[in-house]
Amino acid sequence: AQRVTQPEKLLSVFKGAPVELKCNYSYSGSPELFWYVQYSRQRLQLLLRHISRESIKGFTADLNKGETSFHLKKPFAQEEDSAMYYCALSLNTGFQKLVFGTGTRLLVSP
Amino acid sequence: GAGVSQSPSNKVTEKGKDVELRCDPISGHTALYWYRQSLGQGLEFLIYFQGNSAPDKSGLPSDRFSAERTGGSVSTLTIQRTQQEDSAVYLCASSVGLAVSYEQYFGPGTRLTVT
Question: Do A100 and B98 touch (CB under 8 A)?
Answer without folding.
Answer: no
